[in-house]
Design goal:
Length: about 575
Amino acid sequence: MAQPPAVDPILLEVIRYALGAAADEMALALQRAAYSTNIKTRQDFSCAIFDREVRVVAQSFSQPVHLGSLTHFVPRIIAAYGADELQPGDGVLCNDAHLGGVHLNDVCLVAPVFHGGELVAYVAAIAHHVDVGGGTPGSLTGLSREIYQEGLRIAPVRIMAGGRIDERLLRLIAANVRSPRETSGDLRAQVAGVHVGARRVAELIERHGWATLSAAIEELLAYSERRVRAAIGRLPAGSYAATGWMDNDGVSDEPVRIEVRVDIGAEGVRFDLSGSDAQRPCPINATYAMTLSNCAYALRVLLDDDVPLNAGFYRALEVVAPPGTIVNARPPAAVGGGWETAFRVCETALQALAAAAPERMAAGSKGCLCNIAFGGPARREGERFVFYETMGGGYGGRAKRDGMDAVQPHGQNTENSPVEETEAGYPVRILRYALVPDSEGAGRQRGGLGLRRDYSFEQPVTFSVLADRARFGPWGLAGGQGAPPARYTFDPEGEARALPSKFSVQLQPGEVISVQMAGGGGYGPPWERDPALVLADLRDGKITPARARAAYGVILDGRGEVDPAATVAARAELRLAAEEGQR
């Protein structure tokens, strides 16, 4: 086989960043054209460019978990639809989780790029749509047992021909969802995104020539692989394992076991999840694409920031997730909450890798996406509304830094919905939006604080949460303490009835649901934390005096300042108690 011509290193960098800029421009076009808060504000979408062999060559700045899933999903969409069937201006739509995708809300649009009558590349955009039908508004419920209950499944189908959307097919989709206006607008935004991507790739071919561009792509893939393998070679070879637990499966109260073994060696990194539980008739089964995405993220955090994320990266990665397990469910398993399980895969993998590189790892984060959806009749007669978001929480403490407060960590990487936009667009009032005091994991570097939102409504609504961490809180690292679990509460200022982490309820006007996310775990022994930092957290309202004393051994005098002698004595007691507990 003839080798592609060598590409000048400077030109290679130009092409590399041009492809990345094209993917980012796709994302910006999609975001600006979108209708739903979830996409235009929270940025719950991703874009990517693939070569003619359907290998990813460039990715947008968006959600890491989407990008790993696109790598797995797009080739299967093209194989199922048939590359020979594609024409210039076509666009293929699919959300079928069991074809290689993720949950049904994540709808993928793939468009071919032609040059001189020859198919040379693909561009793809995946976005989380606020509703795809199913049993509850938002299409995410803790009660589904099979995928048929979770909404409209779209096998690979041509929704775009000659560059224009098929209005009849769009009407069919819109007729099966609760938010037809937003769904139609967001689909058109995806069309805008792939149009931009196809145009930019065509311009690159015109500027540099197809032979040069294809040779550059081959070199970029090889370059990424070399960089990844070099980084792996700097890690201590060996086998590292950890076990994570989820509260329950949403249908039964039985916890779910996630077991990850990470093997680091000359051939690359292997994530083996064979010890995880079998799939269940419940909504939190994960697809292989979800699991792959989160294992890829766990490897990515060990690399330098400038390593290009393309198909070359995945050559050094192997993921073993046996079919029929909770991390690679067979049809017709429900998968609506599969990202929760996949998130636990990520955190469990990071916990395992902490034994190999503790100085580069953070303690456990809030540990779940926390899907929140609500809906009901809209303010205008004859219409309905649906709202979807995920909640921020604490990031884990690190070797030299505290964890961040109220973020959506790791592969999630979306924004918290603004209160003003949410209240302006939907019949909801956010009665409280604040950090949760004492929610951090104590440590030399403490974990970040969790986030609280209290929701009340002007009219009857169906309110659903598909989350986790109400039973098993985030873990600490290097002697740091774990963070307290999340809390889900009905009528927090009155009855204060605890709710599970997966539920759907009917709310009447004025009734309140409080969602309080977990913080992040601590890093290092808490009694080694600078007392001045503990005092600053106390004055900021992030921790209480009781927490400062019990967790950090910091004692205040009558003026509200640190009492040095009393603090030294209290910390000696904490250290002694910890040592005795380890015996």
